[in-house]
Amino acid sequence: MTPIQPLPPGLIAVTGGEQSGKTSLLRRLSGDLPALPDAAAHADARWLDLALPAQDEHTAQQVWQALQARSPRWSAALHQDLVEALGMLPHAEKKLFMLSTGSRRKVALVGLLACGATVTCLDQPYAALDRASVRVVRAFLQDMANHASRSWVVADYAADPELPWQRVISLD
């Protein structure tokens, strides 16, 4: 078995079809699942199920506060910018069960993008989003593409052709 290479800073695409292991890889990187032999979870990695299961009774604001409490490098300014850019201000005090699938996923995305983790794992970040929100997320990732010390690991069926990937990992 070949040891897993360290993650480079910038954007990393993890691609593959259904049941190829994309989500499991993100969860292992973040420590949400046990790491594989010859690999380790990253000490400062964040992954969230963007559907936010079992959080129906929480408000968007409560989700963000909980993530902020676990994120020492949380960016309040970025959080606010993303809330506004993704149109989430009117939904901040709504319970998650009241939100559409896309808005619920935007709650999780706002938190993950603002958390400041060294490795941020995004599982199909464009799913269920409107075009304007996809543009916001894509622009954020574009801005982070050449970051010197942070990695964004983005799992999806295919790598977004509009983004400058440092590495593409195909699980097919």
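(the above was protein one; protein two follows)
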Amino acid sequence: MAANPTDPTLIYDGECGICQQSVALLRRWDREHVLHYIPFQDAAGVARHGRGIALPALAAAMHLVLPDGRVYAGADAIPELLRLLPGKRWLAPLFAIPGVLPVARRIYAQIAARRHCLVRGIPGR
């Protein structure tokens, strides 16, 4: 099913095992099918939904593209993703606690820099 350009879209690394596992978890949580998921390797999908985000940026971190044009990358996308998922909205305010988002950014950056060494891609997904 083709995504509507007005759907919130998560662009991620489709060859990264951690990214694939994270998207699988989000899909389970996304029971109302609020989000559209595009691996950054899908050039046509990124052209439609990527708002001109440069390929090196897409390769470095996940990007959440919202219908109003806002784009959140890396750990900054996490509270926004949680706000979009009805059963998980209660978790989003935790990122407003002083210090939580900066720590999440550091952890995300460390994992993103090593993601291909930590978990290999899952074939067939």
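Reviewer note on protein two: The chain has one domain: 9-118.
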